[in-house]
Write a structure and sequence with these properties.
The complex is a heterodimer of chains A (199) and B (162). With 199 residues, chain A is mainly alpha-helical. Chain A folds into 2 domains: 17-106, RNA polymerase sigma factor, region 2, helix turn helix motif (Rna Polymerase Sigma Factor, Chain: A), CATH 1.10.1740.10; 130-199, Orthogonal Bundle (Arc Repressor Mutant, subunit A), CATH 1.10.10.10. Helix content of chain A is 65%, strand content 0%. Chain A has helices at residues 8-11, 21-29, 33-55, 58-74, 86-104, 131-148, 153-165, 169-176, 180-198. The longest helix of chain A is centred in the N-terminal third of the chain and has 23 residues, at 33-55. Chain A starts with 7 loop residues before the first helix and ends with a helix. Mean pLDDT of chain A is 80; it is low at 1-14 and 118-124. Helix content of chain B is 26%, strand content 31%. With 162 residues, chain B is of the alpha+beta class. Chain B is elongated. Classes of the chains: A mainly alpha (199), B alpha+beta (162). Chains A and B meet through helix 3, helix 4, helix 5, helix 6 and helix 7 of A and helix 1 and helix 2 of B.
Chain lengths: 199, 162
């Protein structure tokens, strides 16, 4: 994708004061750097948090987060709204890239992972976060935590291994000492249950 | 290690987003934005450099394209050529006059690394004129010159630095 950068005026679009994620992606698709800046302000910390959580390494997390936003800039025309809202696209990109990096490492630490590991809660929120963002973050976090409690312990562990360590069904089955079919069923049912409660 | 395509969450991007957004937040380091901005500036600079190379004013391009090899210059009826590059720098139109009639010519561009890449061929009409009104220029490393050759002999009829 080759696109020259354009300003708002050149793009011929009237930028709304609080554009939706979808609008920002559409403007990025037209080469508007201001839209990328807005999306960055909105998602830089969540994306960085996710890749940091997966990689546990600040330098690698920064590299991966940079590549994620660069990919958003260069490949905005590949965004497919039928596969989910822009955050789903961005976080999927981030998670995939972080897991790719993790797999590229020769070493793979066998850490216990958890969605709400209190030891990682170093920065409660980005210091630039608005009150609305703080409220939204807390509501979402509480909703996810509540949804996670609906899963069985095995389901929860399997989902966390898949989400944060990028493990495949086979790897999770080996790690948990469970039959592959059982693991596949548990993860799928767990994810469906999560989706239902998050809706 | 199995490939990521076997990712159990592959069909659950909405759940991925919800889980990611619920993670304890870590502020992105300031250097992340600095590096992203630098990459954007470099991207813009490269695009503009390419644009300026191929979208010079038509007159200046024509002056450069009019020159046949030094040994064949002079006299009336010498080959003439003109190229007009589109504003986006991706397409060009070639018009030539006073070429040998009913002969095939090939047009090639030379890249900065010295390689020569054929881009088109045409047959001059009865008056020796030839044209390529729509020609897509190849992408890749910068183009530094264009050459028009007689296919029968390989002789360069017109050449110019871009």
């Amino acid at each position: 994708m080759e696109r020259p950068a354009r300003t708002d005026a050149a793009a011929g679009t009237a930028a709304s004061p609080d554009p939706s994620d979808l609008e920002l992606v559409e403007r990025i698709r037209h080469g508007e750097q201001a839209a990328l800046d807005a999306l960055y302000r909105r998602y830089a910390s969540p994306v960085y948090s996710l890749v940091w959580k997966i990689l546990q390494n600040a330098e690698e997390a920064e590299d991966v987060a940079l590549d994620v936003f660069w990919q958003v800039w260069r490949q905005a025309d590949r965004y497919d709204a039928s596969r989910g809202a822009p955050p789903a696209w961005i976080f999927t990109l981030a998670r995939s890239r972080a897991i790719d990096r993790l797999r590229a490492r020769s070493r793979r630490e066998d850490r216990t992972v958890s969605i709400d590991d209190p030891g990682l809660n170093i920065d409660p929120l980005d210091e630039n976060a608005s009150p609305d963002e703080v409220v939204s973050f807390r509501q979402n976090r509480d909703a996810v935590r509540a949804a996670m409690t609906k899963l069985s312990a095995v389901q929860r562990e399997a989902v966390e291994l898949a989400f944060l360590k990028g493990m495949t069904h086979v790897e999770i089955a080996e790690k948990l000492g469970q039959p592959l079919g059982t693991v596949k069923t548990r993860i799928r049912q767990g994810l469906i249950r999560l989706r239902k409660h998050l809706d | 290690m199995s490939p990521i395509s076997h990712d159990p969450l592959d069909r659950f991007p909405d759940v991925v987003a919800a889980l990611a957004a619920a993670l304890p937040s870590k502020a992105a380091p300031p250097t992340l934005k600095t590096r992203l901005d630098a990459r954007l500036r470099e991207f813009t600079r490269e695009r503009e450099a390419s644009f300026h190379l191929l979208s010079r004013p038509a007159d200046r391009v024509r002056e450069r394209l009019l020159a046949p090899p030094a040994s064949r210059r002079g006299g009336r009826g010498r080959p003439l050529g003109r190229v007009v590059v589109s504003a986006c720098g991706r397409e060009a139109a070639f018009f030539c006059w006073y070429l040998p009639a009913h002969e095939r010519f090939s047009l090639a561009v030379r890249r900065a690394d010295g390689s020569l890449e054929p881009v088109a061929a045409f047959r001059s009409d009865g008056a020796g004129d030839g044209e390529l009104p729509y020609l897509r220029l190849p992408s890749g490393p910068p183009l530094v010159a264009v050459e028009l050759r007689r296919e029968s002999t390989g002789e360069v009829a017109l050449a110019a630095r871009l």
